[in-house]
Amino acid sequence: MSWGWSEILWVSLIGFSLVFILLVALIFIMKAFGACFRVRPASGKKVDAQPMISEEEIAAIATALKIYRGALHDRESEVLTILNIKRAYSPWNSKIHGLTQLPDRR
Questions:
Q1: CB–CB of 23/30 below 8 Å?
Q2: What Rg do the C-alpha atoms of the chain give, in angstroms?
Q3: Which of these, 47, 26, 28, 51, lies nearest to 38 by C-alpha position?
Q4: Phi, psi angles (nearest 5°) of residue 66
Q5: What pLDDT does 96 receive?
Q6: Sign of CA dihedral 26, 28, 34, 36
Q7: What is the rounded distance in angstroms from the CA atom of residue 11 to the CA atom of residue 9?
Q8: Which tens digits make up the pLDDT trace of 45-97?
Q9: Cβ(41)–Cβ(47) under 8 Å?
Q10: 62: which residues sit within 8 A by CB, 6+ positions away?
Q11: Can you tell me the distance from the alpha carbon of 26 to that of 42, in angstroms, rounded to the nearest whole number?
């Protein structure tokens, strides 16, 4: 099956336009979800989105979280121990079997 340039251009144009249309539709869907979940006060007063927290309260919370997270882990010693393990002979790791033996000359 041989495709001509006109068919290739039409398929490309349809593909690009389809992607563009779906991206625009996705933007409108996200905006609709944002409008649905927006908090609206019962009265006409403006509501602050974030309550003001003082710097001392933020520091106290951060310190408490640091202490809590530090208590979850065990204290490990910082001493490294290196053990020398003697391996038993094994023909699998012997280099002598990988060498080619010379034939006997007579």
A1: no
A2: 36
A3: 47
A4: -65, -45
A5: 66
A6: negative
A7: 6
A8: 665 666 688 889 999 999 999 888 877 666 666 677 777 777 666 666 666 66
A9: yes
A10: none
A11: 30
- Whether 21 and 29 have beta carbons less than 8 Å apart is answered as no
Determine the residue type at 101: Q
Amino acid at 99: L
Task: Look up residue 88 and give its two tokens.
Answer: 């038993």
DSSP of 11-72: HHHHHHHHHHHHHHHHHHHHHHHHHHT----SSSS---SS----HHHHHHHHHHHHHHHHHH
Q: Comparing C-alpha atoms, which of 5, 27, 8, 26 is closest to residue 16?
A: 8
| pLDDT, mean over the chain | 80
User: Structure tokens of 102?
Assistant: 């010379």
In the numeric block, which tokens belong to residue 39?
């908090």
Structure tokens at 35: 């409008």
Distance between CA atoms of 5 and 11, rounded to whole angstroms? 10
